[in-house]
Each structure stands twice: as structure tokens, then as C-alpha cells.
Design a protein that fits this description.
- The protein is α+β, with helices and mostly antiparallel strands.
- It has two domains: 96 residues, 3-Layer(aba) Sandwich (Rossmann fold), CATH 3.40.50.10330; 174 residues, Sandwich (Tumour Suppressor Smad4), CATH 2.60.200.40.
- It contains nine helices and 17 strands.
- The chain has a 15-stranded mixed β-sheet that branches. A two-stranded antiparallel ribbon has the order 4-5.
- The longest helix is centred in the middle third of the chain and has 15 residues.
Length: 317
């Protein structure tokens, strides 16, 4: 079986690039036949996955952060149809990123790369599919594996991506969160979830969750499961710096959903539209990337991807 190994040398504030020979030795000893593909620019993981598929790769291993894995997952999408290619090969994620939030939902936390590679087993998991307005203002489709969000959280991600991360992901996200919340002004949106929810409200942020964690370890969606066929919709209303300081501890532990500024819905199809007359677009982020703006439609793609991970250690699947 041919295994394509896609690595982002910039991941982990350059850690992958600095220690690549050691990473390479660790990975290749677990597979019989490998092809090494290193990214050279942001967004290139998508194209490298497509190249690997053309050359018959039967397994794809991605070394990098959540953004790298997000790009790789989108390489499984046919750009002509915006649908996943047939017979997607199994994928494996080796987290060496700033936040590595998705790894927290998949049993990888605390494991070495060697342990992840040795103990991984396959499982069918869901993906999220977004139809939205792209960065170039044209209609776009983007898939995500962990969490998509918009509002203050997307602004925070934008700030974090442009900041230094030498003190680690959690510090970078706390700093970015405080700065983002200080500059954010709430927006009114209309939220529809399947046929049962139709609400218009002012929000600070909304998380569309397949996984449970984002923002460098915040358990924003503690009830989310990556294989339940549902998206958890977490509304965050009237958030600000003072409320983050007050409630941040509960948010990191997943004990926040009973607080008045949070609401939770669950569904298979979520539609979001702006409901105010402000001209500024509302930015959307997916797994740390920023593919476009609201309005959007989010649909779950049940059991769309075979992922190899130490599922026996996962908190919930």
C-alpha cells in the first residue's frame, strides 16, 4: 500500500521544518512504501493531496496543524463538482501545530507520534460542508473536519494566524481572544437549524461543531461527536473581555452551556444569514483557516471520511 506523507515545515512555529529528519524517520518506519510531499506555501496541502490521489495513494498521512489537515481534507474534493471524490483513501493526522484542537477529540493528546502511528485504527467520521461567499466574493464550497465558526472567533483566528506563536498555542489564542473581543461589535443574524429552529438574534460568535475543541483548547461543544451525523450549533451572545475573564475557565472545561450567554442546537442542515444593515462582511473560519463570509449553509456529511487514530483513547466518538 502506497502512503503519501504530506508535511508542513512551518507547522508548530517551524518545528516540523527544524526537526524534519527525525519526524521523517519516525513516520516512514511504520509504512512499507511512502511518497514524501512537503508544502512550500499556505494552501498547498490541498493540491498535494490531489496529486497523491492521481498517483494512486492508498493512504494519506498529514503532519502539521489543524489548518494543514483542513487543507488536506479539501484535497479530497473534486473542484468540478464540489463533492468528495469516490473511494476516499483513509487519512491519518499527526498533530504538530499551534493549537492541535482536533487531536483532543480523537485520543491523540499526550501521545508521541510513534504511539499514534502504532495504535491507530480506522473509523468512519463525519465532515462538515459549507456553502458560503468566498474571499473573492464568489460562491464557494469548503469542507471542515473539526469546527467552523464566525463572528468574533473568526476575527480572533485571523489575528492569531498573523501573530507570533513562540509561547505556544494556548497563549497565542488567549492573547488573540482578548484582542478580538475588544474590537468586535455584535451582529444580528438569522439562524435556521433543520425545520425546527428559526431564530434572529445578536451574536458575538457561532460555532458549528463536529469536534469538541477550538481556540487552543476551549471545549466549546462538549456534547459534539465526530460520528453522530449531527452538527452542534453553539451560539455565543454578548461576549466581551470581562465575560471571557469571568467564564473562560468554564469554557475550557466544557461547563459553560448553562450560562445565559450560550445556546445549543443540534442539526444536519444549518442556514445563517445576516439580519442587520451593516455593510461589513462577517468572516468565517474553518479549523483555523478563513475561506469566506456569511451567508452560509452548513450540512453534515455522515461517515464521509475514514480516519486512522487511537480511537480507544478518545473521550467520545
Amino acid at each position: 500500500m502506497t502512503t503519501a506523507i504530506i508535511a508542513n515545515p512551518r507547522a508548530g512555529a517551524g518545528k516540523v521544518g527544524r526537526h524534519w529528519p527525525r519526524f521523517e524517520r519516525t513516520i516512514v518506519k511504520h509504512f512499507d512504501k511512502t511518497a514524501i510531499l512537503l508544502t512550500k506555501a499556505p494552501g498547498q496541502s490541498t493540491e498535494l493531496v490531489r496529486q497523491a490521489l492521481k498517483h494512486g495513494a492508498e493512504r494519506i498521512v498529514v503532519l502539521g496543524g489543524d489548518g494543514t489537515f483542513n487543507e488536506a481534507v479539501n484535497g479530497l474534493v473534486d473542484p468540478k463538482t464540489n463533492a468528495l471524490v469516490s473511494n476516499c483513501p483513509p487519512m491519518m493526522f499527526l498533530p504538530v501545530g499551534t493549537a492541535s484542537d482536533f487531536s483532543r477529540s480523537t485520543g491523540m493528546t499526550g501521545l508521541s507520534l510513534d504511539d499514534i502511528l502504532a495504535s491507530g485504527t480506522p473509523r468512519q467520521i463525519d465532515l462538515g460542508r459549507l456553502e458560503l461567499t468566498g474571499i473573492n466574493n464568489a460562491p464557494a464550497v469548503h469542507y471542515f473536519i473539526n469546527i467552523a465558526s464566525f463572528g468574533a472567533t473568526a476575527l480572533i483566528v485571523h489575528r492569531v494566524n498573523r501573530s507570533t506563536k513562540r509561547f505556544g498555542g494556548k497563549v497565542a489564542f488567549i492573547k488573540g481572544t482578548l484582542e478580538g473581543l475588544a474590537s468586535w461589535r455584535d451582529r444580528r443574524v438569522r439562524i435556521q437549524v433543520d425545520d425546527g429552529v428559526d431564530e434572529e438574534c445578536a451574536i458575538s460568535a457561532v460555532a458549528l461543531a463536529n469536534g469538541r475543541y477550538f481556540g487552543g483548547g476551549m471545549m466549546v461543544a462538549p456534547q459534539a461527536r465526530v460520528s453522530d451525523g449531527l452538527i452542534d450549533v453553539v451560539l455565543i451572545k454578548t461576549a466581551n473581555v470581562l465575560k471571557f475573564i469571568k467564564y473562560g475557565g468554564k469554557l475550557y472545561k466544557g461547563r459553560h452551556l448553562d450560562l445565559p450567554i450560550f445556546s445549543l442546537y443540534r442539526g444536519r442542515r444549518i442556514t445563517i444569514q445576516p439580519a442587520d444593515d451593516r455593510p461589513a462582511p462577517i468572516l468565517v473560519e474553518t479549523d483555523g483557516e478563513t475561506p469566506g463570509y456569511v451567508p452560509l449553509i452548513c450540512e453534515v456529511q455522515p461517515e464521509a471520511l475514514t480516519m486512522i487514530a487511537p480511537w480507544h483513547r478518545a473521550e467520545a466518538v
